[in-house]
Design a protein that fits this description.
- By secondary structure, the protein is an all-alpha fold.
- Helices cover 80% and strands 0% of the residues.
- It contains 16 helices and no strands.
- Helix 2 (45-61) packs antiparallel against helix 8 (205-225) and helix 12 (306-334) runs antiparallel to helix 13.
- It starts with 8 loop residues before the first helix and ends with a helix.
């Protein structure tokens, strides 16, 4: 007889999503805060870049390891430790006296932040019955959208309220009360889960080291290649491939011996899981670079302030907030065709957005630009939110809940790799079009040639369409295969 679901599951999920929200908020707030950080601490361009890159790299390195720890040591315990570490690191960032201390604290912050997500997805997979997982993942998608939407706006407001020297520090201190509340409520509402015997063995330290080195060798050159003179870093991809090959062989040996591997390769016998992981990489190449190139277009091309730039992409994130829970309610009934429809809409609206930008290339009035792009960005966000949540639900649908944390970590790693590729490729396409074009010197002083920035944005959106078109083709193939089967 199947045990009834835990009556505390929805309250517990809300608590865990608080921790996830704080970690995601810090992905989006930093770009807005960087100018103030530079002026306040004297950080140079390279140091400012590492304040972003350090967090992104660390955040992407640990999801699989965090998922394995949650499966083997208990998800509530690992969640609590990860949030506490994230809170302490956030306080260290806010108090950092020098750029070097700030960068180090950001790396630690990213390591703990990257361990939170697998506990949330693993908790959903193990506690919620199959019919409710779509709605639960929908709430996770809503959290992702809210963190993306509110991050730039919150940063802009806090910097305006606190001034150059204090405002950017408040951006990181805001994580402290959120994290402390999440920890206290987790001890009360999140049910303690017994570690699963299959995952409770000693942590595969060699596997963790190989995976960490291999992922760093992939993510670092991708991120660095988008910077001036960063192309030589791509040479790291060769040793990274060798290290990851060694990792797979090591994990295959442990999997055959049933000796508590870090990544149980039997996961990749589940076709829906493999399809979802590949889809996550391809689609995240398309969608996560769009807010980045929009911010460059607004601030460097049109002279928008940080707050105006944040408002310019808010419609996209608000659409995600609506799309994620809506799709979560229908995915269990509609299945993969819902994903196919959503990707098709996303691709078409991306084309439409490029047409709208191209139609008025010299428009620089903030209100007019934001209003003109608001509707296509809103629909684009709804479509994007309707893709991420269903894909996560479908990817984990046939995965054994015992391995739910690791499986969720693999999906999040795929998303981070796709995000890094997309932001680098779209950003590079944007910059290449602007070779020799002057940029805005600050808010209220647009560049001499805003039409060139419109052309650059249009090209970047065309690159996004190539990626989303590939995701559309992958979805169509999978829908056809399921129907024929």
């Amino acid at each position: 007889m199947t045990a009834p679901p835990d009556p505390r599951r929805w309250r517990a999920l809300s608590v865990m999503l608080m921790g996830q929200f704080a970690a995601l908020l810090d992905v989006s707030v930093t770009n807005v805060a960087l100018p103030s950080i530079g002026r306040s601490t004297g950080a140079g361009a390279s140091e400012l870049q590492w304040m972003v890159t350090g967090y992104v790299l660390a955040f992407g390195l640990v999801p699989v390891i965090g998922g394995r720890l949650g499966d083997g040591r208990g998800r509530r315990r690992v969640f609590t430790i990860a949030v506490l570490g994230f809170v302490l690191a956030s306080a260290a960032v806010g108090l950092a006296p020098t750029p070097e201390v700030l960068i180090a604290a950001r790396v630690v912050q990213g390591l703990f932040g990257g361990m939170i997500g697998p506990q949330v997805s693993g908790f959903i997979q193990s506690v919620f019955p199959a019919g409710e997982r779509g709605r639960a993942f929908g709430r996770l998608g809503l959290t992702v959208g809210a963190g993306t939407a509110l991050g730039p706006v919150v940063a802009g407001l806090l910097i305006a309220a606190g001034g150059e020297d204090v405002g950017w520090r408040l951006v990181f201190f805001i994580n402290v009360p959120i994290g402390i509340a999440a920890v206290l409520l987790a001890r009360r509402w999140v049910p303690p889960d017994a570690p699963t015997p299959a995952a409770a063995g000693r942590l595969d330290l060699l596997g963790a080291a190989l995976l960490g080195a291999g992922l760093f060798g992939i993510l670092f050159p991708i991120v660095e290649s988008g910077q001036a003179g960063g192309a030589p870093a791509l040479l790291l991809l060769v040793p990274a491939a060798i290290v990851l090959t060694g990792f797979i062989r090591h994990e295959a040996r442990l999997t055959r011996a049933d000796a508590a591997p870090l990544l149980d390769l039997r996961l990749f016998r589940v076709r829906s899981f493999v399809t979802g992981v590949v889809f996550a990489v391809v689609f995240f190449c398309s969608n996560t670079g769009i807010p980045l190139v929009l911010a460059l277009y607004y601030q460097d091309g049109l002279g928008f302030s940080a707050l105006q730039s944040a408002l310019g992409v808010t419609a996209y994130a608000v659409g995600t907030v609506f799309g994620a829970p809506l799709a979560g309610r229908f995915i269990s009934r509609v299945g993969r065709p819902l994903l196919l429809i959503a990707v098709g809409v996303f691709t078409l609206v991306t084309v439409l957005l490029g047409v709208v930008v191209h139609a008025a290339p010299d428009e620089t009035d903030p209100a007019a630009v934001i209003l003109r792009l608001c509707l296509p960005l809103l629909v684009l966000g709804i479509a994007g939110g309707s893709i991420v949540t269903p894909n996560q639900t479908l990817t984990l649908a046939e995965v054994d809940p015992v391995r739910g944390g690791v499986a969720g970590g693999v999906v999040q790693t795929a998303q981070r790799v796709g995000s890094s590729i997309g932001q680098t490729v779209l950003g590079t396409a944007f910059v290449l079009v602007l070779t020799g074009v002057p940029r805005a010197e600050g808010p209220g002083s647009p560049a001499a040639n805003p039409g060139a920035f419109s052309a650059a944005l249009t090209v970047a959106l065309a690159v996004s369409v190539v990626f989303s078109g590939a995701a559309l083709a992958l979805s169509a193939i999978e829908v056809r295969r399921n129907r024929s089967r």
